[in-house]
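stage 2 :: seqdesign
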C-alpha cells in the first residue's frame, strides 16, 4: 500500500467553524456535521483511525476529515481513487489494529498491507462495475430495511391500540379523564401503577467480572437484559465468590423487570417478563426494578405489553431526568404514579393471548427479512472481494 497511496492525518475541527457552512465533516463512522473549513476539495477516501477504526468512507465532494481519521485524495495517489475505495474494504483494517495502548488504525501497518494492483484501465472497469452492482444491492437492502421498520411500527401500533381500546371494536367507550389518552372501553378503569402492584424491588451493583455467570453461578443483571421488551438472561456479569450473594433480589420465573437508567432515553422504562427460570442465579442490579404485581388486578404479561404502548411511553419520557448520553434515569416514586389502562383480569388474558399470536407471527416475518438483509450484505462483501482480486473476468464486468 505504501507504493499506492499516502494517508494524511485529519485535523481537530475548529470550534468556531462547526456547522458554519456546507462542507461535509467526516469522522470515523462517516459524515456527522458540516463546516466552512475543509482539508480536501476533491473526492477523498476517509479511513477511521479511532472509534470505528478501519472503516472506509467516501467523500465525493471533498470534506473536512476530523482528527479521528486518515484521508486519501487524488493529489496523493496515481491510482484510480474509486478503485482504491473498494479495494481498501477487502483488507480487514478493522480487525485488531492497535496504536499504542488504545485500539486504533496504525498508518504504518496500512502501508505494509498487500493488494492486487491491476492496470489503470482495469481499475476503472472494476470501480465502475462495483459502483453499479453495489448500488443495486444497496437499494435492495434499503427496501428490506424499510419493510422491517414498517413491520415493527405496525406491531407497536397494534399493541398500543389493543391495550387502550381492547379487542372488540364495537365496545362502548367512555372518557378516560386524560386528554392525551382519549376514550377507553366503558368497562375498563384507569389506575395508577401503585394500585396494581404491592411495590417495586431494586437491586445492587457490586464489582463483578466482565463475563456472564455459568449455570448455577451467581451473577448480576446488566441494564440491557430488558431491551426490546424481551428478557435476555445472558446479559449479566458473574459475581466473584468473595462477594456476598443476595437471594432476596434473585430473579425468578414470572418476574416483571424494568430498566430505570440508561445513556439512551428510549431504553429507560423497557420492561420484560421472565418467562422461564434463568440457568444462572441472577440478581437485580441497582439499575433494574422488579414489580411486585398484584395478579388479582394485573396480568404480568399484560403489564409488559402495556408498558411498551405509546401512552405509557409518553408518561415515562415526561418524568425521565438527565440528558441524552448521560445518566438518564427514572425515579421509583414516578414509576408508581404512572397511569395504566386496566381491563378486567379475564379480558387481560384474552388480550395477551391475541397479541402474543400476532407478535409471534410478526417476529417470524421480521426474522426472515433480517436473514435476507444479512445474506445481501454478505453477497455485497463477497462481490467486492471477487472484483478487486481478479476473480471476475474483465469482460463480464464490462458487460
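stage 2 :: out
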Amino acid at each position: 500500500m505504501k507504493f499506492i497511496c499516502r494517508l494524511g492525518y485529519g485535523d481537530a475541527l475548529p470550534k468556531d467553524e462547526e456547522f458554519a457552512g456546507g462542507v461535509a465533516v467526516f469522522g470515523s463512522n462517516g459524515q456527522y456535521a458540516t463546516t466552512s473549513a475543509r482539508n480536501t476539495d476533491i473526492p477523498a477516501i476517509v479511513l477511521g483511525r479511532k472509534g470505528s477504526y478501519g472503516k472506509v468512507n467516501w467523500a465525493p465532494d471533498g470534506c473536512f476529515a476530523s482528527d479521528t481519521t486518515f484521508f486519501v485524495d487524488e493529489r496523493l495517489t496515481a491510482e484510480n481513487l474509486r478503485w482504491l475505495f473498494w479495494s481498501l474494504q477487502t483488507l480487514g483494517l478493522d480487525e485488531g489494529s492497535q496504536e499504542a495502548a488504545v485500539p486504533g488504525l496504525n498508518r504504518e501497518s496500512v502501508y505494509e498491507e498487500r493488494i492486487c494492483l491491476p492496470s489503470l484501465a482495469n481499475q476503472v472497469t472494476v470501480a465502475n462495475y462495483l459502483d453499479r452492482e453495489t448500488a443495486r444491492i444497496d437499494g435492495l437492502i434499503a427496501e428490506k430495511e424499510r419493510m422491517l421498520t414498517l413491520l415493527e411500527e405496525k406491531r407497536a401500533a397494534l399493541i398500543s391500540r389493543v391495550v387502550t381500546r381492547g379487542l372488540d371494536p364495537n365496545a362502548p367507550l367512555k372518557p378516560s379523564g386524560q386528554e392525551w389518552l382519549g376514550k377507553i372501553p366503558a368497562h375498563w378503569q384507569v389506575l395508577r401503577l401503585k394500585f396494581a402492584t404491592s411495590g417495586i424491588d431494586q437491586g445492587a451493583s457490586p464489582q463483578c467480572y466482565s463475563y456472564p455467570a455459568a449455570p448455577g453461578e451467581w451473577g448480576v443483571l446488566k441494564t440491557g437484559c430488558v431491551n426490546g421488551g424481551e428478557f435476555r438472561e445472558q446479559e449479566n456479569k458473574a459475581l466473584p465468590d468473595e462477594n456476598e450473594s443476595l437471594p432476596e433480589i434473585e430473579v425468578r420465573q414470572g418476574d416483571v423487570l424494568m430498566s430505570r437508567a440508561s445513556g439512551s432515553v428510549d431504553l429507560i422504562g423497557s420492561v420484560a417478563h421472565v418467562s422461564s427460570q434463568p440457568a444462572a442465579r441472577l440478581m437485580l442490579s441497582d439499575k433494574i426494578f422488579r414489580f411486585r404485581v398484584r395478579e388479582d388486578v394485573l396480568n404480568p404479561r399484560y403489564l409488559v405489553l402495556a408498558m411498551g404502548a405509546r401512552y405509557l411511553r409518553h408518561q415515562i419520557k415526561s418524568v425521565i431526568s438527565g440528558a441524552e448520553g448521560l445518566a438518564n434515569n427514572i425515579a421509583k416514586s414516578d414509576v408508581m404514579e404512572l397511569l395504566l389502562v386496566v381491563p378486567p383480569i379475564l379480558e387481560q388474558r384474552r388480550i395477551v393471548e391475541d397479541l402474543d399470536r400476532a407478535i409471534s407471527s410478526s417476529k417470524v416475518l421480521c426474522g426472515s427479512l433480517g436473514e435476507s438483509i444479512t445474506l445481501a450484505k454478505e453477497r455485497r462483501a463477497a462481490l467486492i472481494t471477487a472484483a478487486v482480486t481478479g476473480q471476475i473476468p474483465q469482460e463480464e464486468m464490462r458487460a
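stage 3 :: structure notes
- DSSP finds eight helices and 22 strands in the chain.
- The mean pLDDT is 91.
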